[in-house]
Amino acid sequence: MPIFTASDGTRLAYHPQGEGEPLVVLPGGPMRASSYLGNLGGLDAERRLILLDLRGTGDSEIPADPATYRCDRLVDDVEALRIQLGLARIDLLGHSAGGSLALLYAARHPQRVRRLVLVAANPWALGTTATPEDRLSAARLRKGEPWFEEAFPAFESWLAGKGEVGPELAPFFYGRWDRVAQEHDARADEEFNDEAAEVYGSEGAYDPPATRAALARLTAPVLVLAGELDGAPNPELARRTMDVFPYAELAVQPGAGHYPWLDDPQWFAGCVDGFLDRTALPSAE
């Protein structure tokens, strides 16, 4: 497990796995240890995954200043990792809340991004977010499943601010509520840094107009990947994220939720690797 030192002296860990061209991966949560990503559906067979444990998560140190958990301040850690890897430019993947960190990195260091992949990315950095109705509409797609009748009222209460996220809500975040999904969800509590999560998107973290303006000039190709059954983001919100970039494409994975590499590993890995394999920039027309 390699360790490098951030600009403020915090020791950060990353987990390389697989062979091939490196792909730097930013976890979501927010502030969840990168272990939940696994090997991204077997993507490590084609890519050398560089899974970063954000400060205060996984094997990375807790920083002296908790304010450094804020998303915009984590950009410096991503840049320090790039320098540690000795790469002039990086292929970068952000999942869920990590998508906003990837967006901020690309906005601040556009010349350092070769390709950008946003997987089920919550685009808070762009000033957009899923609405309760987005989530409810996606949840209703699961109506025929055996757990739905018990879970849906709790889901409605949570969205109305009348309840906490409990285990009965977990099936809505997965395309298939099978043994793999259940084991993945069971590990979540030990992988989160709740204190850090509260700071991640706190006041000052995002400047949507500036970020949008910067990303409108990004020359790197972008893949925005959404799960068909995900409510945050749903495919429509993912499409709106795609429209921010001059060179971007949208992929909607059939039957997938918020962790699409678990729902159909072969589809997911093939889609991401296929995008990364393409080297020519899209036409500006």
Label this structure with key terms.
285 residues, globular, 11 helices, 35% helix, alpha/beta, disordered C terminus, Rossmann fold, 8-stranded mixed sheet, single chain
Q: Could you write a compact summary of the structure shown?
A:
The chain has helices at residues 71-85, 97-108, 132-140, 148-159, 179-186, 188-191, 194-200, 208-215, 235-242, 260-263, 265-277, and strands at 3-5, 11-17, 21-26, 47-53, 90-95, 113-119, 222-227, 248-253.
Note down, in words, how this protein is organized.
The structure is a single chain. The protein is an alpha/beta fold. The protein has one domain (3-134, 192-277): 3-Layer(aba) Sandwich (Rossmann fold). The protein has 11 helices and 8 strands. It has an 8-stranded mixed β-sheet with strand order 1-2-4-3-5-6-7-8, with helices on both faces. Strand 5 (90-95), helix 2 (97-108) and strand 6 form a beta-alpha-beta unit. Helix 2 crosses helix 8 and helix 3 packs antiparallel against helix 4 (148-159). The chain is globular. The N and C termini lie far apart (45 Å). The model is unreliable at 281-285 (pLDDT under 50).
| Structural domain tally | 1
Structural class of the secondary structure composition?
alpha/beta
Q: Could you name the CATH class? A: Alpha Beta
What is the strand tally?
Answer: 8
Give the integer mean of the pLDDT values: 95
Q: Compute the gyration radius: what is it?
A: 18 Å
* H/I helix tally: 11
CATH fold description:
Rossmann fold
Under the CATH scheme, which architecture would be assigned? Answer: 3-Layer(aba) Sandwich
Order of helical and strand elements: EEEEHEHEHHHHHHEHEHH
Fraction of residues in H or I helices: 25-40%
Distance N terminus to C terminus? 45 Å
